[in-house]
């Protein structure tokens, strides 16, 4: 909002968050919004929605952003690309393959670099890396997406849509799953490595 006001002289932007703002697993987003003074520019979509209503959210948005620090796949980013919306995403987990076209290295939106990596764990998950990007880098990406204008965003969204159709179609997914299982069943003995467990 500050960047937008500096460059454009207004704060006409809305962030739609499809999430529960008081989720016990995260921070209180009402309090965060109040601390940042952005309550007027923030809308929470809290309810479980039917596909048609999720589609409405995608249709009224200019782009989709996901800065999750431990995203396994990124279903929301893929859905947005599927209907022709460019994305802003951290190059972590499955989102890397979505935001960056592996065939030529081009981007289907704005790919954010991992700027900080931490090693964390719990009793159930002994260790896992979490990938973070700074607020400043994220804000710069949002402003860059805004400055592209509607025509450039639409062009980028169509590129993202074609990429999804090529790389993430149901048929490709089913075929890849089938081929992987078939290869494993037919060739597991050639690749099998024996392990010895020793008590210490």
Question: What does the model show?
Answer:
The protein is of the alpha/beta class and 200 residues long. It folds into two domains: 1-48, no CATH class; 62-182, Glycogen Phosphorylase B (Rossmann fold, 3-Layer(aba) Sandwich). The chain has seven helices and seven strands, in the order αβαβαβαβαβββαα. It has a three-stranded parallel β-sheet. A two-stranded parallel sheet has the order 1-2. Strands 6-7 form a two-stranded antiparallel ribbon. Helix 2 links the parallel strand 1 and strand 2 (42-44). The longest helix is centred in the C-terminal third of the chain and has 33 residues, at 135-167. It is globular, with a radius of gyration of 20 Å. 16% of the residues are buried. The model has no long low-confidence stretch (mean pLDDT 93).
CATH fold title of the largest domain: Rossmann fold
Q: What's the quaternary structure here?
A: single chain
β-strand percent reads 5-15%
Order of helical and strand elements: HEHEHEHEHEEEHH
Number of helices: 7
Kindly provide the radius of gyration, computed on alpha-carbon positions and rounded to a whole number of angstroms: 20 Å
- Identify the overall geometry: globular
Percent range for helical residues? 40-55%
Distance between the termini: 57 Å
The mean pLDDT is 93
CATH class of the largest domain: Alpha Beta
The profile of the biggest β sheet is: 3 strands, parallel
DSSP E strands, number: 7
| CATH 4th-level superfamily of the largest domain | Glycogen Phosphorylase B
């Amino acid at each position: 909002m500050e960047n937008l006001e500096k460059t454009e002289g207004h704060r006409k932007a809305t962030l739609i968050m499809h999430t529960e703002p008081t989720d016990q697993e995260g921070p209180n987003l009402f309090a965060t919004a109040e601390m940042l003074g952005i309550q007027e520019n923030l809308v929470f979509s809290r309810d479980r929605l039917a596909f048609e209503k999720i589609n409405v959210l995608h249709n009224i948005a200019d782009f989709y952003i996901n800065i999750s620090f431990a995203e396994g796949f990124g279903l929301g980013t893929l859905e947005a690309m599927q209907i022709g919306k460019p994305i802003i995403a951290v190059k972590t987990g499955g989102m890397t393959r979505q935001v960056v076209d592996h065939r030529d290295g081009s981007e289907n939106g704005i790919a954010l670099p991992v700027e900080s990596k931490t090693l964390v764990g719990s009793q159930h998950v002994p260790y896992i890396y979490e990938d973070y990007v700074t607020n400043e880098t994220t804000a710069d990406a949002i402003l860059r997406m805004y400055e592209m204008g509607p025509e450039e965003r639409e062009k980028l969204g169509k590129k993202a849509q074609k990429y999804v159709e090529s790389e993430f179609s149901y048929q490709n997914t089913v075929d890849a799953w089938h081929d992987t299982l078939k290869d494993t069943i037919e060739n597991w003995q050639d690749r099998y490595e024996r392990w010895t467990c020793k008590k210490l």
